[in-house]
Amino acid sequence: MSWLLEKINGGLVRFFLIVVALFWLVPTIGLLASSLRSPEDMSASGWWQVFAKPSQLTFGSYRNLLKNGDITHSLWNTVLITVPATVLVVVIGALAGYAFAWMEFPGRDWWFLTVVSLLVVPVQVALIPIAELFGKIGLFGTILGVVLFHVGFGLPFAVFLLRNFFAEIPRELLEAARLDGAGELRLFTRVVMPLGGPAIASLGIFQFLWVWNDMLVALVFTKSGTQPITVALQTQVRQFGNNVDVLAPGAFISMVIPLAVFFAFQRQFVTGVMAGAVK
Q: CA angle 200-119-260, nearest 5°?
């Protein structure tokens, strides 16, 4: 009887999780269905009508999107902002995390405490001062300025996360590598980086999602030629509120790329999040 109850309980849990997952996917499915319908169909009925009338599905909206230079250019700007901001944070954060974890230098703990204290600084506090600074040095309104801002605010969390993960690596393993003649750079690239893969993947996902979906920083630091997709879509809504044939596919592409990145690295993400939870 106990095994029957366990099966029933397990089935109920699975059913509940499936229902929650379906509810979570409803906005994504609705946006996808809307992006595959004509403007006339969207104004006449809801997106769920595609299940009763699949003939409404068309790729015309995506063809219109590819003809919209503002949207396609902003999508490329988003890539130019997100990829460097993610790579720089991961690389610099990994180097700094290794230094704080395993290298001896004066004031190491105090420097690390200073870096951690930067986690409590809100982004909104730094917008105006950094905007003025970027204006004086010619970086305001450029993609480089947005990248540097995201790197600066992403590094404290990166250093904190990777330092704590690297500190869990057995000291004996590092000492054995040093006895074999490995220097600090070789030790970092051949031993620490492979072991820190899950944490690095988790950090990369966090940073990628934050930068890709950002609108506040982009609104402040970009101009018309450097706007990412989030700002470009908001501008399209304000200027052309009825051009849903461009907005729907643009919003879906903007959303599906971060989802694809997350699902592609979800195993490493879960491993990195759970690292250190069980000794």
A: 40
Give the other-Cβ count within 10 Å of 129's Cβ: 9
> For 17-27, how does the pLDDT look when each residue is reduced to its tens digit (9 = 90+)?
788 878 888 88
> Are the C-beta atoms of 139 and 151 separated by less than 8 Å?
no
**If you average pLDDT over each of 67-71, 94-98, 229-233, 250-254, which comes out highest?**
94-98
- Spatial separation of the C-alpha atoms in residues 102 and 165, rounded to whole Å: 11
DSSP state letter for 226: T
CB 243 within 8 A of CB 170: no
What is the b/e burial string over 71-102, where b = at least 16 CB atoms within 10 angstroms of the residue's CB? bbbbbebbebbbebbbebbbeebbebbbbbbb
Distance CA 8, CA 14 (A): 10
Start-to-end C-alpha separation, the chain:
35
Which residue type is seen at 270?
A: V
Residue 227 phi, psi dihedral angles, 5° rounding? -70, 140
187 touches 169 (CB < 8 A): no
Q: How many residues does the chain have?
A: 279
